[in-house]
Amino acid sequence: MLKPILLVEDNPRDLELTLLALERSQLANEVIVLRDGAEALDYLLRRNSYAGRDDGNPAVLLLDLKLPKVDGLEVLKQVRDTAELRSIPTVMLTSSREEPDLLRAYELGVNAYVVKPVEFKEFVAAISDLGVFWAVLNEPPPGSLRLNRRGSN
Amino acid sequence: MTTDHNPLDQAIERCAQEPIQIPGSIQPQGFLLTVDDSTLRVLQASENVDRWFGLPASEILGQSFAELVSADFDLRGQLDYLPEADVFPFHIGDVRLRQGAPDQPPLRVLAHRHDQVLILEFEPSQKADGVYKGDYYPLVRAFVSSLHQATSIEELLLHSVRQIKRITGFGRVKAYRFDSEGNGTVLAESVDPGYPSYLGLSFPASDIPRQARELYRINRIRLIEDANYQPSPLLPALNPLTGKPLDMSFAALRSVSPVHLQYMRNMGTLASMSLSIVVDGQLWGLVSCHHERPRQVDVQTRTACELLASVLSLQLESRESHERTRTLLDLRERIVRMLAAMADHDSVSLGLLEQPEVLLAFAGANGAAIISAERCDLIGETPTAAQVNALVHWLGRRGDEVIFHTDNVGRDIEELPELASRVGGILAVAISQLHSHYLVWFRPEQARLVNWAGQPEKAISPQGHLSPRHSFDRWQEEVRGFSAPWDSLVIDGVLELRMAVLGIVLRKAEELAQLTGELKRSNKELEAFSYSVSHDLRAPLRHIAGYTELLNEIEGEHLSERGRRFLSHIDEAARFAGSLVDNLLNFSQMGRSALRLADVDLNTLVHAIRQELEPDYQGRDIVWAIAPLPVVIGDPAFINMALHNLVANAIKYTRGRAPARIEIGAMQHEQETEVYVRDNGVGFDMAYANKLFGVFQRLHRMEEFEGTGIGLASVRRIIERHDGRVWAEGQVGQGASFHFTLPRHQPHS
C-alpha cells in the first residue's frame, strides 16, 4: 500500500522524539529506522543484510546530517548519483544551522532541509509537515510500488 | 662642457682652452735642457743658454751632457737619487759648467722625468736679499707645533701666511679658500705697509681658469719672479722623442700665460708665488705671495714653503675629516632618536612630530613638512600648507628622483614663484612616491654681502680674448635668493633616514600580513567552534525540552503542584538556553557572512517590524512618533535585524509606561545617515553606556526584563560591518535613545 518512510538517525533520543513526532502526525506509512549511513546505503542499494529486502524505494528519506561511518551528505550524494534512487524525496534533518552544510545539501539536490527546533512542539509540527507533504501528498513516481506497512526488521 | 652663449663666457672658455702646460718657453732666471735618458745627449735647450755657456743653443744640441759640465759632476750617479714615485723637479746637486763658460758660481740642478725625456733645470744658487738665510728645519718644526695650537681654520691659515712671509720676504702673503663654485675668499693675510689689504675680499672663479686650477692641484707650487720677464723659447720647439711640444706641467721654470702676467701687472705685483692647499685630492685653497718688485726665491726656500703648505693641507684635512665625523655622528644620533620615536608610535608621522627639534636640527633647517597620503604636518618656519602641497605635486612630476635639494628655490623651481618668497632652500626626500609620502626641510633665504676684490667681470679684447681686469678695488654685491647650501653629509643622512623609515614601513606591512594570517586562523577556529556549538549544544537542549514536555504531558497529572512547577522551570531554562545558543550563532554568523548591499526603504522596514512585534505590545498604550525615513544602502536582512532589535528593546523597556512613547527618526548628514529610536522607558545610567553594546551585557535583572543580552551587540556588529557607528544616550527613568549611522556612499571595495 503505502511506501515506507526511511528514517536514518544515530542519536537514540532524537530517534525517539522523531518517531514520537511521526506518530503524532498520524501518518499511515511504515517507518523504517536505520542507525548509520552505511546501513542506509545497504538498505537503499539492497546489499549485504538488506540484499533480500522487497523491491521498491521509500516514500521519503529522512536523513540526519551527522551520521557514523558514512555521513548524511555522502548518503545523499550516492542517492542522487544512483539512477534507481535519484527520485526519492530526501529531507535533511540536522541540528546545524551552519550555512556550508546547508549549501552543500542543496548542491546535492536535497528536497528539504529542517533544522530541528529546540522546542518539542515545533519539532512535532515540522516533522509532521514534512511527512504529510512528502509521504502523502506527493504523487509517487510512476512505476514505484506501494508496500504494506511492516516493521523495520 | 659649458654652454657658451655670451661673449664673456666664450672668452672665459677660450682662456680655459689655452694650453698652459705646453707654453714652449721658460722664465729666463734659469735655463732648461731636455736630455735623452739613455744617451744623456741634449735634445732641447732654452734659447737663453748662451748667457751661461757663452754658446748659442744650437751648438749645445746633440752634445753629451758630460761635455757641458765640469768633470766632477756625475749625472748618472746623481739621477739614482731621484725619488721613484715623485714627478716633481728634484734638486740633484750643484754644478759648475765646463771650462770655457763665463766664470760664475755653481748652479742648482733640478731634474725630473716627464714626457719621455729627462728635464734638467738650472738656476742660480745664491739667495736674494731679505730672505731667511738660516737652516729651515728648526723653522718647520716650530711651525708644525704652532699649527697644533690653532683653534680655528683662520688661525691656522694666519700662522701659515706669517711663516711663509717670514722665510720668503714677500710683501703680501694671503691664504684663500675656494667655495663650491670656485670663488676664493681671503681668510688670512700678512702684509707689509704700503700693500693694499685683501683680507675678507673674494676673487671670482673666473680669475683662475679651469686648466690652471687643475695644474695647481697636481703641481703645488708656482713661482713668477718677474712679471715683466721675456720668455725664452725652447729649441727645437718640439720634443724630438714625441714630435709634440714639451709638456712642462711640472717644470719649475715653465712660462705662464701672458693674460696672467697682465693680471699681475694690473694688480701692481711683479713677483708672485702660489702654494696649493689640497684637501682630499681637491684644490681647497691657495697661499698666494705677492711682491711689488721682482723677487727671487731659491730652491731651498721653495721646498720649505712647499713643505709648510703640505703640513697645512694635512692639518686642514684632519680637521675637516674630524668635523665630518662629528657631523656624521650627530646625524646618526638624530636618526636613531627619530627612529626610536617612530617605533614607539608605530607611525612615521607621529614619531617625527613628537621630536620636532630633532627633525629640524637633523638637517639644520628652520622648517619641515611631513607629507603622507592622509596628512600634511608643518613644523617651524614653512610655506603655507597649500604651497607645500603644490611643491609635493611639483616633486611628483619630476620623475623617479628620490631626493631633491636646492639652495635657491627661485632659480630652481620657477613654476612656484610664491614659494621663493617664503623660503630660500628646500631638501625633499620621497619615502614613497607612489603614496606621495615625503619629508621636506626648509631653510630661509640668507641675503649676504660679497666683497669682491674688484668688479668680477673681465673685459674682452676686440679679438675676443680675455683681458684681465684692472680694478681690484672693493666692490660690494648683495647676493639674494640663496639659503645656506645643503651639506653633502646632510643629504647622505637624509637618504639614510629614508632607508630606515622604509625599513619600518616594510616591517609594519609584514606585521600586518602576519596579523592577517593569525586572524584568518582564529576566524577558522571560531567557525569550527560555532559549528560544534550548533550541533552539540543544541541537541541535548532539544532533548531536555522534548522530554520535559512529554513528561508533563504523560505524567503531569501524577505530579504534585511543585513537581509541575519544577518541570516548567526545566522547560523554560532549556528553551532559554536554546535561544541563547541560536542568538550566539546568529551573532557569529553576522561577522562572517558577506554583506549583500541594496537600497533599503526604512519606512517599509519599520512598518513590517511593528507588525511583527504586535503580539508583544498588544493591549499596551504606545504612542508611535515615526518620521518619514530615508532609503539607506545596506544589507536588508541585517538592517532589519538591527532595527528589529532596537524597536523590540524600546517596546520592552517602556513596559509600565502609560502612554509609552516610541520615536523613530533620521537625519541626513553630509557623509552619513543617522537613524535613532527614542523611548520614554526605564533608561539607563550613562556610566554604563559603553557596556550596553557588549555581548551578554545586561543592565537589568532577569525578572525585570527578559533577554539574552546579545541584541545590542548584534546591532553594533551589523552597523560596524556597514562602516557605521552606534551610540546610546539615556538617563535612569527618563528614557533612552539609540542611534546608528550608515555611510551614504558605500565604498566599492
Automatic annotation (TrEMBL), chain A:
Pfam families: Response_reg (PF00072). Residues 4-131 form the Response regulatory domain. It comes from the Bacteria. Keywords: Phosphoprotein. GO terms for biological process: phosphorelay signal transduction system. The modification 4-aspartylphosphate is found at D64. SUPFAM superfamilies: CheY-like (SSF52172). The keyword Nucleotide-binding does not apply. This is Response regulator. It comes from Pseudomonas soli. The lineage of its organism: Bacteria, Pseudomonadati, Pseudomonadota, Gammaproteobacteria, Pseudomonadales.
UniProtKB/TrEMBL annotation, chain B:
It comes from the Bacteria. The keyword Transferase applies. Pfam families: GAF, HATPase_c, HisKA, PAS_2, PHY. One of its GO terms (biological process) is osmosensory signaling via phosphorelay pathway. Signal peptide: none annotated. Gene3D superfamilies: 1.10.287.130, 3.30.450.270, 3.30.450.40, Histidine kinase-like ATPase, C-terminal domain, PAS domain. Residues 532-746 form the Histidine kinase domain. GO terms for molecular function: phosphorelay response regulator activity; phosphorelay sensor kinase activity; photoreceptor activity; protein kinase activator activity. It is an enzyme of class 2 (transferase). InterPro entries: BphY/WalK/GraS-like, GAF, GAF-like_dom_sf, HATPase_C_sf, HATPase_dom, His_kinase_dom, HisK_dim/P_dom, HisK_dim/P_sf. The keyword Ligase does not apply. Residues 152-310 form the Phytochrome chromophore attachment site domain. PANTHER family: BACTERIOPHYTOCHROME, TWO-COMPONENT HISTIDINE KINASE. In the N-terminal section; belongs to the phytochrome family. This is histidine kinase. It comes from Pseudomonas soli. The lineage of its organism: Bacteria, Pseudomonadati, Pseudomonadota, Gammaproteobacteria, Pseudomonadales.
